[in-house]
Design a protein that fits this description.
With about 220 residues, the protein is mostly helical. Helix content is about 65%, strand content about 0%. Helix 3 runs antiparallel to helix 8 and helix 7 packs across helix 9.
Length: about 220
Amino acid sequence: MPIYESPESDDETTPRVKLFGRERPMHAVLGGGKVADVLLWRNRNVSAALLIGVTAIWFLFEVFEYNFVTLLCHISITTMLVIFIWSKTAEYFGWNRPKIPELLSNEDVFREVVSNFHWSFNQYLLKFLHIAGGNDPVHFFLINISLYIISVIGSYFDFVNLLFIGFLCMETLPYLYTQYEGEVDYHAGQMTRKMSKMYRRFDSRVLNKIPRGPVKVKKHA
């Protein structure tokens, strides 16, 4: 069990904040619907099938070096052959003919996905504008450092690998975070506190010593 007292010698305590300052549960942050259930592995069959499917596609692209058009054509040919054999067998034995899966034919599912994406995009955009405007110096520096690290990592991978790594992170990190939420929030609070202290020190020793010109007062007629 982690000890939730700061080892620092000063009287400040580690801020008890959620990661990225969120106030809602992780399930609500991810949209609170079927998409959130998949990302948090509450629907394990769908989550596992999605992970296996994307991994298989990545394997075909990177290991077998399939071209996208070639892969798409081969998948279409295989699907048509399977449906053809299934349909003829169903006619012979009196089975049910193949139908479009409900998950794909359900319009509400697609609306929910688009709505969640739109809401999440607006929230991230508002947060981005808030941080980029200098209202949160700690996160401003953290995000810029993180983006630089990602850009360095990205120079060693092609686009397909980056997409696959991003998908793996999306499928695993939210679930792992919910399992170890207390420990992650504790260490994130410590890091935020240290970054705040570093920024205050930099502000007092550097920024405040930069000479500023006199403020011009507008004269009203």
